[in-house]
């Protein structure tokens, strides 16, 4: 094992957030528990392992810990999906194996598909999320709000990027008007031609040295095209979209972190069909801060905002100052977050109960079969 001190200058070029171990007690404790291990960043995640990097040039494969390779469970002794490394994470490694996951500063998560509650990390340690949406049939303000909910819930700042502004029939002004409520709350919204470096330059304020951004959006929205333009080369595969609905195939098959010429890191992700909340989100993070403020003015504190008297939200809709479709999406997401929060609470209670039972079982076994 190489016991040389980490090259923090190279690590900072791929987003290393700390000057040293002393700045974070948890990182310091892990470093002391694994003497000689070196930090690296996850730049690719595959079923059989990970690709790590300790600088802007290239990467190397590393195996995950054995407990990460087992079926993901949510029990006292299991390691759920969201506690395993994801693209953007920092880990301690010995050149062949990942030894420990370092503390996350931010994480974009969604509820994983399946009957059992689990969380899936989309990207970790991200400063900015570019929510990419095409100015074609892909344009959907309600889906953008759902992305904003998940992004904000992870502590990441969103920027809405409307691509394909050069296409015939693209109406950037109409799209910007449809997202006026988000813009009024300080969410940047940009319309650009993703193939044109001069317009893609509008993203540069969020791509300074040491910064990390992630591209999220549906298949065919133009995420990989944005990546190629920022790189200045055709590195990521791109594909055509269907004419009738502007949907694309998954040309990006896995998440990957790429060092940009600007000194920033960019994470490209496959299109996501399911965007289920985890139950940890705040509705204000979905661009609904104004609706939340109105809700506090309702006559009844438990107002459902459907048909109750004295509802400030219904009054705003009637007055034409609030979009009914946006309120409907707010109510839908509110119910989804509440349901997910209930499932999360149930899982946490089950885990705590399993931990108590396992502790009691170990105590009985130690009493029956004392160690010599």
Please tell me about this protein's structure.
- There is one protein chain.
- The chain is α/β, with parallel strands linked by helices and 372 residues long.
- Among the domains are: 8-103, SH3 type barrels, CATH 2.30.30; 124-268, Rossmann fold.
- The protein contains 10 helices and 13 strands.
- The protein has helices at residues 8-12, 25-33, 141-153, 172-178, 180-184, 197-200, 223-231, 289-295, 312-319, 324-368, and strands spanning 38-46, 49-53, 60-62, 90-93, 98-101, 107-111, 119-124, 128-134, 157-163, 189-191, 212-216, 256-259, 265-268.
- It has a 6-stranded mixed sheet, sandwiched between helices. A 5-stranded antiparallel sheet has the order 3-2-1-4-5, with no helix packed on it. It has a two-stranded antiparallel sheet with strand order 6-7.
What is the fold named in CATH at topology level of the domain at 124-268? Answer: Rossmann fold
Helix content: 25-40%
Largest sheet: 6 strands, mixed
Question: What structural class do the secondary elements suggest?
Answer: alpha/beta
| Poorly predicted ranges | 239-246
Overall shape: it is: flat
Features:
372 residues; alpha/beta; Rossmann fold; five-stranded antiparallel beta sheet
SSE topology:
Elements: H1 8-12, H2 25-33, E1 38-46, E2 49-53, E3 60-62, E4 90-93, E5 98-101, E6 107-111, E7 119-124, E8 128-134, H3 141-153, E9 157-163, H4 172-178, H5 180-184, E10 189-191, H6 197-200, E11 212-216, H7 223-231, E12 256-259, E13 265-268, H8 289-295, H9 312-319, H10 324-368
Parallel strand pairs: 8-9, 8-11, 9-10, 11-13
Antiparallel strand pairs: 1-2, 1-4, 2-3, 4-5, 6-7, 12-13
């Amino acid at each position: 094992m190489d016991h040389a001190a980490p090259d923090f200058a190279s690590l900072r070029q791929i987003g290393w957030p700390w000057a040293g171990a002393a700045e974070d007690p948890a990182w310091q404790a892990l470093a002391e528990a694994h003497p000689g291990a070196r930090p690296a960043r996850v730049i690719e995640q595959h079923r059989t392992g990970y690709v790590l990097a300790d600088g802007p040039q290239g990467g190397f494969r590393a195996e995950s810990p054995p407990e990460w390779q087992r079926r993901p469970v949510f029990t006292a002794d299991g390691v759920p999906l969201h506690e395993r490394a994801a693209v953007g994470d920092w880990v301690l490694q010995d050149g062949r194996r990942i030894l420990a996951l370092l503390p996350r500063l931010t994480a974009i998560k969604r509820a994983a598909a399946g009957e059992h509650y689990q969380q899936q990390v989309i990207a970790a340690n991200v400063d900015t999320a570019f929510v990419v949406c095409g100015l074609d049939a892909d344009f959907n303000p309600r889906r953008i709000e759902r992305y904003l909910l998940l992004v904000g819930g992870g502590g990441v700042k969103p920027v809405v990027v409307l691509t394909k502004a050069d296409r015939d029939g693209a109406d950037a002004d109409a799209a910007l008007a449809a997202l006026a409520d988000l813009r009024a709350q300080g969410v940047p919204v940009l319309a650009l031609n993703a193939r044109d470096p001069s317009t893609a330059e509008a993203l540069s304020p969020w791509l300074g040295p040491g910064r990390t951004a992630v591209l999220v959006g549906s298949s065919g929205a133009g995420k990989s095209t944005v990546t190629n333009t920022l790189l200045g080369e055709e590195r990521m595969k791109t594909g055509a979209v269907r004419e009738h609905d502007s949907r694309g195939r998954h040309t990006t098959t896995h998440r990957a972190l790429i060092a940009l010429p600007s000194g920033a890191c960019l994470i490209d992700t496959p299109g996501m069909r399911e965007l289920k909340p985890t139950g940890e989100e705040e509705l204000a993070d979905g661009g609904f801060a104004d609706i939340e403020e109105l809700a506090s003015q309702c006559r009844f504190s438990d107002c459902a905002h459907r048909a109750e008297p004295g509802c400030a939200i219904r009054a705003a809709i009637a007055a034409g100052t609030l979009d009914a479709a946006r309120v409907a999406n707010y109510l839908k997401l509110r119910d989804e977050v509440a349901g997910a929060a209930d499932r999360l609470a149930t899982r946490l209670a089950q885990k705590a109960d399993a931990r108590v039972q396992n502790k009691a079982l170990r105590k009985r076994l130690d009493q029956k079969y004392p160690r010599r």
